[in-house]
């Protein structure tokens, strides 16, 4: 996501703690922070020519992509409580 989309995420979720509780608020903040970090690393990577620095940046990018890949299951776990429908 680009920075505009990340800012939109924060604007659209400003009442997250009120609606869902602090766990969701913390989770949305983590998504935002990791997104900003990924954008920053990619920005630096695009202009970096030193091989050793590029390797470190690629490693950071890979780690962040892996984190985001795991978030589908994490989001299901966190939101399940709020979205579950129970029948009695």
Structural commentary:
This protein is mainly α. It is built from 5 helices and no strands. It has one domain. The model has no long low-confidence stretch (mean pLDDT 86).
Low-confidence stretches: none
Sequence of secondary-structure elements? HHHHH
Domain count: the total is 1
Overall mean pLDDT score? 86
Overall 3D shape: elongated
**Share of helix, binned:** over 70%
Radius of gyration: 16 Å
Number of helical regions: 5
* Tally of DSSP β-strands: 0
Short description:
This protein has 88 residues and is an all-alpha fold. Helices cover 83% and strands 0% of the residues.
Write the layout of secondary structure elements.
Layout: H1 3-12, H2 16-20, H3 22-47, H4 51-69, H5 71-83
Helix pairs in contact: 1-3, 3-4
């Amino acid at each position: 996501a680009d920075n505009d989309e990340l800012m939109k995420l924060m604007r659209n979720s400003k009442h997250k703690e009120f609606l869902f509780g602090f766990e969701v608020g913390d989770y949305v903040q983590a998504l935002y922070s990791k997104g900003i970090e990924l954008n920053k690393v990619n920005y630096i990577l695009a202009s970096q020519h030193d091989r050793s620095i590029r390797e470190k940046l690629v490693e950071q990018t890979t780690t962040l992509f892996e984190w985001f890949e795991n978030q589908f299951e994490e989001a299901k776990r966190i939101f399940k409580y709020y979205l579950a429908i129970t029948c009695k």
